[in-house]
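User: Can you predict the 3D structure of NusG family transcription antitermination protein? Sequence below.
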Amino acid sequence: MQVSTGKENLFVESGEKNEAEFEREYSIIFPQRVLKIKKSGKFTEKKAAVFPGYVFIRSEEITPDTYHSVRKLKGFYRFLPNNQEPLPLKGKDLDILKHFISFGCVANISVAVFDENDRIQILDGPLKGLEGQIIKVDRRKGRAKVKLDMYQNSFAIDFGFTQLSQMGKKREDVNDKSSD
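Assistant: Sure. Here are the predicted structure tokens for NusG family transcription antitermination protein:
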């Protein structure tokens, strides 16, 4: 379902508060990713939505009670593809979602190496298996932009990675060294 972009956490919190008051027949899934952000010369980790503006509900079926309960939550925009006939994820769309939630609620930073032809190879993490969908790599920022297609929309999403040397050791990076 589509919710207010940047306020997905408020929607989830509103749903959890609603759960405490009423018995719910569904659970809210909000896949997130970890990115390294450089601010004032220091790297920090920040959580961001995998699919900005979208959350998912897990339910056997969308009953009229579920439908009305979800629509009342703060930040709700619409069910997909429309409010009259919400459809469940299936096929490739469901596979993409399952891939990310298999890493838990938060997809951490992947581990990568670059081969002799300068192609990225993912050794571990949420990018593993998505190498063919990587459209851009920024080694300095440690990010790979992945093109994902879901519900007839394309998303270009940045995921973080840590680069290892061919020997399996973490790459020495000037940005990671502490200054005296």
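The mean pLDDT is 85. The domain at 1-108 is CATH 3.30.70.940 (Alpha-Beta Plaits).
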